[in-house]
Amino acid sequence: MRTLSEVPIGRLRDEVVGRGISALTLDQVIDLTGLSRGAAREAMRRARVAGHFFAPAPGLYVPIPSEFSSWGVVPAMDFIDQLMGFLGRSYYVGLLSAAELHGAAHQRPQVFQVMVDRSLADRDIERVRLRFHERAHLDDVPVVLRNSRTASVRVSSPEATVFDLAERPKDSGSLDNVATIYGELVEESKLDAAKLVEVASLYPLAVVRRVGWLLDSVSSYADASALSEPLHDFVVANSVKERRAVDLLAAGGPRRGEADARWGLVINAEVEPDL
Q: Over the stretch 76-131, which tens digit does the pLDDT of each residue have?
């Protein structure tokens, strides 16, 4: 088999793609080509200038197949697992990006959202805009594996996605958008009641209350009672008896609003799902 050093720089991408290599570190370039570190770095610099590779992190090179040449990058799903492995980070695709992957794509997200175990700077690579959100106890959150063209990618389960969206509505478009996504997931039977209750234990009770209320809010569009009732039982079992409604539907909003006795929430915002 030819070594990569025998391939002209203009054909380096095609050789890598043909071998099924989805990403290369600088050390791997050196191992494959026999080039010195300086020569390998220069070769990859020229390959990037030629639009054959991009570097989502210093020292990591992702080939750009010809069908994505006009992008200057590949879809985020095709390199996020490789990037997180290179950076040594635990992760899962979450929030609106996960909702889209689960079939709730009312409005295509403008960014690709990833939950990470430690703070990580956002990065924009041509048309791909990566947004990272730190999540405590990330490895406890249930995920499913979704195949991309190059890897199996960790994605929050539909049930975990529901809770993440309610916990971070500002990163999810708004409570209106969250309710819209809930309606779509309910209509498509993407949520499991038992798994919702199981995941609920990973989140603050205020978030569980919000999820239950939002599920009820879409009842005129899709019957979510089979999902909300077990959550209500969970809330009751974990609440202080005779507790007054103090948690806010819209965290950070005004502390005034009608009290919802069922969920123990102050309804301090109007929610209008687009369903």
A: 999 999 999 999 999 999 999 999 999 997 677 899 999 999 999 999 999 999 99
Cα separations in angstroms, 226 against 69, 189, 216, 222: 48, 11, 10, 11
Residue pair 175/214 in contact (Cβ under 8 Å)? The answer is: yes
Residue 98 covered by a domain = yes
SS (H, E, C) the chain: CCCHHHCCHHHHHHHHHHCCCCCEEHHHHHHHHCCCHHHHHHHHHHHHHCCCEEEEECCEEEECCHHHCCCCCCCHHHCHHHHHHHHCCCEEECHHHHHHHCCCCCCCCCCEEEEECCCCCCEEECCEEEEEEECCCHHHCCEEEEECCCCEEEEECHHHHHHHHHHCHHHHCCHHHHHHHHHHHHHCCCCCHHHHHHHHCCCCHHHHHHHHHHHHHCCCCCCCHHHHHHHHHHHHHCCCCCCCCCEECCCCCCCCCEEECCCCEEECCCCCCCC
**Claim to verify: residue 62 and residue 99 sit in the same structural domain:** no
pLDDT tens, residue by residue, 210-221: 999 999 999 989
- Structurally, the chain folds into a number of domains equal to 3
Domain boundary among 112, 129, 156: 156
The pLDDT assigned to 7 comes to: 61
User: What's CA 135's distance to the chain center, in Å?
Assistant: 11
- Select from 68, 93, 111 the last residue of a domain: 68
pTM of the model: 0.93
In a domain, 167, yes or no: no
Range of the domain at 40: 4-68
